Amino acid sequence: MLPQYRQQPPKPPDEEYSPQMVIPSSIELFNFYRRTLAQCAKLSTGPRLVELSTVFAKYLDQYAQQVLLFYLSERPSGQTPSNIPQMEEIILVLNTADYCFNTCTQLEEKIKSRIDERFKANVDLQSQADAFMGIASATVRALIRRVEVDVEPTWREMRNTGWGKIESVGDQSSWVVELVKVIKRRVAEILSMLHKQQYARAFCDNLVDSTVNNFIVNIFQCRPISEVGAEQMLLDSYALKKGCEGLLSINAPQNTQSPAGYIKRVNQTISRLDPILKTLQVRPSPPEALVQAYLIHIADKSDTNFRKILDLKGLKKQDQSHLMELFQAHRASPRNEKLPQSSALLALLTAANVNTTGGSTITSSIGSLPGAATLSTSNLPARFDPSIFGNAIMNAARDGVDRFGTPNLGGSTPSTSTPSRAMSPPPQQQSRQQSRASFEVPTSVATGSGNLNENLRNIGKFFKRDIGSFGRFGSGSKALDEGT
Question: Which of 225, 255, 285, 307 would be 163's cystine partner, CB 3.0–4.6 Å?
Answer without folding.
Answer: 225
